[in-house]
Amino acid sequence: MAQVRPTHPHYEADMLSVEDARERILSFFRVLEAEEKPLLQALGQTLAEDIRSPFNLPQWANSGMDGYAVRAEDIAGASGSSPRVLPVMGTVAAGQMPARRLEPGTAVRIMTGAPVPPGADAVVAFEDTDELERKASGRGVGEIGIRKAEPKGASVRPAGEDVRAGEIVLARGVALSPAAIGVAASVGRTSARVVRRPVVAVLSTGDELQLPGEDLAPGKIYDVNGYSVAGAVLKAGGIPNVLGIAPDDPAAMNAKISEGLQADVLITSAGVSKGDYDFVKDVLGERGSVEFWSVRMRPAKPLAFGLLRGPFGRQVPHIGLPGNPVSALVAFEQLCRPALLKMQGRTRLDRPVVDATLEDAIRNTDGRRVYARVRVSRRDGEYVARLTGPQGSNVLTPLSRANGLAICPEDVPVLNAGDKAKVQMIDWPEEAML
After folding, report:
1. Tens place of pLDDT for every residue, the chain, 434 residues?
2. 52, 169 contact by CB (below 8 A)
3. What is the dihedral of CA 270, 275, 279, 283, to 10 degrees?
């Protein structure tokens, strides 16, 4: 299909589309090597092996409820008015094996999950017997009255119902969820080979920054990006290595970048706009090959990407995010998060997208794709989205209230209230769920 050129009056041809920028970045990332991890420590990581079951699951036919194991033919025609009375030959509890084969015309008391005795082919629930009356009268349960006929197989879980011996229970490429960890444990595994998590160095730049906890000097602001970007790395499955702040000084920045080159990826913030100090670009250029892009998106137009020379001949990917905190996080969502997921062996790199009716207008003033911060909820069975506050790239609070990014395409000057919009969901709180 031919590409349609956006018709917005402020369209700039020299900007990269979000898709082009993402494709260029992703082409430099590969799946990381595998490591053996204890199951619980591997939660959320991607399997680097197939896990097979060495046995059937369940390993033997077992009872689906508390009751009495019988032969279906022995209780044919049983009812409340005409019970079948059978001698009880013992009890099988969960975790025990039956002591003997079930003889015709007898019953065995059995608990949920306990192996069904050979010869039995049905289980009758306690409530369909006269057990309570017998116990209340002091007669005991040497024999039991069955008040309901059950067919063969009733409440009997067959061996191998869940998994057959040799079958793959978890395939390579699966992200280990709590349920998947349970499946691995059910076949006897205590660890698994998984793709390791990427170590991501996070560096903030700028003389105006101070660390939270310090007394703010005049003209200074606290470093937001070091925390928010590191949090985004952690949420995406990476291991953040927060390097702190590099002031506007080539020597100090070089030292911080050298620390970051021990990681799998270096993410910096600020110093990538046209008006920023040239020494930032100079320092990055001296350490490798770095390009500075304008991406057709709002917020987060300026971006840097390249490969920096690391120790032992390694090339370390570097992504330079804008300095404004909203721009940094929106750019991370679109360009960094997919790269981190790819490194972890994930194949689904995109956030889920829903169609939502807008409650507020979204204006596109310059022909860039707008990512508006919205709150999505359900109303009358449909999604609705409202802006969470001012949309300036320096105003972080509205993004903290948002669970989605509503997209106004490059060639659409305005989406009005009542229009449908694609919303990239960055969270799924209760009010947005079905």
Report:
1. 333 344 555 555 679 999 999 999 999 999 999 999 999 999 999 999 999 999 999 999 999 999 999 999 999 999 999 999 999 999 999 999 999 999 999 999 999 999 999 999 999 999 999 999 999 998 888 999 999 999 999 999 999 998 999 999 999 999 999 999 999 999 999 999 999 999 999 999 999 999 999 999 999 999 999 999 999 999 999 999 999 999 988 999 999 999 999 999 999 999 887 766 667 778 888 999 999 999 999 999 999 999 999 999 999 999 999 999 999 999 999 999 999 999 999 999 999 999 999 999 999 999 999 999 999 999 999 999 999 999 999 999 999 999 999 999 999 999 999 999 999 999 986 665 55
2. yes
3. 50
d(CA 300, CA 331): 6
Instruction: Locate 56 and state its tokens.
Output: 């059937």
Q: Quote the tokens at residue 192.
A: 């698994």
- What CA–CA distance (Å, rounded) separates 364 from 341? 30
What is the rounded (10 degree) CA torsion for 362, 365, 369, 372?
Answer: -30
Distances (CA, A) of 284 to 119, 233, 279, 417: 77, 22, 8, 44
Contact assessment for residue 29 and residue 128, using Cβ atoms and an 8 Å cutoff: no
And the tokens for 80? 């409340």
Structural contact between residues 89 and 100, judged by C-beta atoms closer than 8 angstroms? yes
Query: CB of 220 within 8 A of CB of 209?
Result: yes
Cα separation, 377 vs 60, in Å, equals 47
Q: Give dist(CA 376, CA 183) in Å, integer.
A: 34
**pTM to 2 decimals?**
0.86
Question: Is the Cβ–Cβ distance between 87 and 106 less than 8 Å?
Answer: yes
Torsional class of 166: left (φ above 0), alpha (ψ -120 to 50), beta (otherwise): left
Q: List phi, psi (to 5°) of 305.
A: -150, 145
Task: Give dist(CA 388, CA 203) in Å, integer.
Answer: 28
Beta strands in 252-350 (DSSP E): 265-269, 288-294, 297-298, 302-309, 315-321
Please tell me what DSSP assigns to residue 253: H
